From TrEMBL:
Domain of life of the source: Archaea
UniProt protein name: 3-(Cis-5,6-dihydroxycyclohexa-1, 3-dien-1-yl)propanoate dehydrogenase
Species lineage: Archaea, Methanobacteriati, Methanobacteriota, Stenosarchaea group, Halobacteria
Keyword check for Oxidoreductase: yes
Signal peptide: none
Annotated keywords: Oxidoreductase, Plasmid
Coiled coil: none
Family: Belongs to the short-chain dehydrogenases/reductases (SDR) family.
Organism of origin: Salinigranum rubrum
Entries under Gene3D superfamilies matching the protein: NAD(P)-binding Rossmann-like Domain (3.40.50.720)
GO molecular function (one): oxidoreductase activity, acting on NAD(P)H, oxygen as acceptor
Length: 276
């Protein structure tokens, strides 16, 4: 028996990393899946590897592309049961003093458009179909939705905003549509920096991750987080849950991690006043 038989899901950012692992797991659990992603090559790889999948090359910050994602899923499979908001970009751990004053507005706008507006556009375009099926929304939050030092001054606030989106939409859409999230800790996933901050893709390798700084002392893979996404997508197993964010943070929430002092001290040491 599988958990997602006869379910249709739309996953944004499903071409690589955590999103790709979720797509694979949903298919294994019996779902049919539509994927919205920027990278055509990765989408072609998914279509070649899996049946019961359709793909849309598009940008989550575009209303039209989100609408195409929803319509493609419905046209191919007849309905939509689950929307997974997962696409995101990173800020390369940039601190406030490191932001160029001339670029703060563009840096902010680009990252928040993908990480926050992209989720809202996806949710809004999926909503009419999810109302028909009494479906579910699942958002990728982060340990940075609850803690500092999970990114920089742009990424961490954007992930705090995701926690607010989950809770507010759960409030607004109950009892028809359930809205939940997953807050992973470290994920070795291909998360690119915004174009305005360099646009580089990168994966924090397992060798760079200090597992011993977390209570569980493991180096997780994207696949390790997919069970939470299956649970929240399952119509039976998520039945009493809305507004819930599953914190799969390797135990950080119960102990914290070993961390350096505030980064602003570096600028004082270098003769720079971080208040400027």
């Amino acid at each position: 028996m599988t958990w997602l038989d006869n379910q249709v899901a739309l996953v944004t950012g499903g071409g690589s990393g955590l999103g790709r692992a979720v797509v694979r797991r949903y298919l294994e659990e019996g779902a049919q899946v539509a994927v919205l992603d920027l990278d055509r090559e990765r989408l072609d790889e998914l279509e070649a590897e899996f049946d019961d999948i359709v793909t849309v090359q598009g940008d989550v910050t575009s209303l039209a592309d989100n609408e195409r994602g929803v319509s493609t899923a419905v046209d191919a499979f007849g309905h939509l049961d689950v929307f997974v908001g997962n696409a995101g970009v990173f800020d390369d751990n940039i601190s406030l003093p490191e932001l160029d004053l001339d670029d703060v507005d563009s840096n902010f706008a680009e990252l928040f458009e993908v990480n926050v507006l992209g989720y809202l556009l996806g949710a809004r375009t999926a909503l009419p179909e999810l109302v028909k099926t009494e479906g579910r929304m699942v958002f990728t939050a982060s340990q940075a939705s609850f803690h500092s030092d999970g990114g920089g001054i742009l990424y961490v606030p954007s992930k705090h905003a995701i926690a607010g989106i989950v809770r507010q939409l759960a409030f607004e859409l109950a009892p028809t549509v359930r809205v939940n999230g997953v807050a992973p800790g470290y994920v070795p996933t291909d998360l690119s920096t915004t174009d305005s901050l360099g646009g580089e893709r990168g994966i924090v390798s397992p060798e760079e991750f200090e597992a011993a700084n977390h209570p569980l002392n493991i180096v997780p893979q994207p696949e390790d987080y997919t069970g939470a996404y299956v649970l929240l997508a399952s119509p039976a197993n998520s039945r009493p849950m809305t507004g819930t964010i599953i914190r799969a943070d390797l135990g950080r929430s119960v102990r914290g991690i070993t961390s350096v002092a505030g980064r602003a001290t570096e600028f004082v040491t270098d003769g720079l006043d971080p208040s400027q």
